[in-house]
Amino acid sequence: MALSIHVNGGTEQKQFQEPVENPEFDYSQRGQWLRAAVLGANDGLVSVSSLLMGVGSVKQDVKAMVLAGFAGLVAGACSMAIGEFVSVYTQRDVEMAQMKRDGEKRSPVVDENDRRMEKKERLPSPGLAAGASALAFSVGAVLPLLAAAFIRDHKVRMAVVVVVASVALMVFGVVGALLGGAPVAKSGGRVLVGGWIAMGILLLGLLG
């Protein structure tokens, strides 16, 4: 965009360039921790909500519900972190071995080491995935716990757990879509419906 400036009776043309937009962001780089975070949050929310409703269906004591939910939170967070770490580390080992085989097949070139280092940086991080999974599970699990802990009436408590779980499922789906550049409505609806189905199956299993 050109701007004319009058200086001592003359006109001086100065060229001002509009800021150039950054190249399109590669959302796939977020996949290694975003997948673990969304999975962990949904798992924590669904499993602990189902556990609270299952315990509340047979025992109306709020302390029993909260203790069962807290035990599920701790056990689930540890299980998710360890499982994610082992699975991602296995994936990393497989990809590293494949990179080594591909490097041996190629003829030696100057930038081979640089290419290999760049590929290593793009590999998933087991520690990052495990931490994201455990933290997300805890965040998802603590929401229904807080909803149940401070409500005396049993029926109201059960209803609030269901409402909080449903709203949180929708929020998790929307946040995951925004971070990953995916359609918001489709992602939120998919997570909500999937969470309802999972909670129904888990609740039937606990009561059966």
Automatic annotation (TrEMBL):
* Gene Ontology annotations of biological process type: intracellular manganese ion homeostasis
Query: Where is the protein situated, by its record's location annotation?
Result: Vacuole membrane
Xref: Pfam families: VIT1
Q: How does it sit in the membrane?
A: Multi-pass membrane protein
Chief location of this protein? membrane
Q: Which GO terms describe its cellular component?
A: vacuolar membrane
Give the span(s) annotated as Disordered: 1-21, 100-123
Keyword annotations from UniProtKB, A to Z: Ion transport, Iron, Iron transport, Membrane, Transmembrane, Transmembrane helix, Transport, Vacuole
Catalytic activity, per the record?
A: Fe(2+)(in) = Fe(2+)(out)
Q: Which GO terms describe its molecular function?
A: iron ion sequestering activity; iron ion transmembrane transporter activity; manganese ion transmembrane transporter activity
Question: Membrane spanning segments where?
Answer: 65-89, 127-151, 158-182, 188-207
Family classification: Belongs to the CCC1 family.
Q: What function does this protein fulfil?
A: Vacuolar Fe(2+) uptake transporter.
Please state what the protein is called.
Vacuolar iron transporter
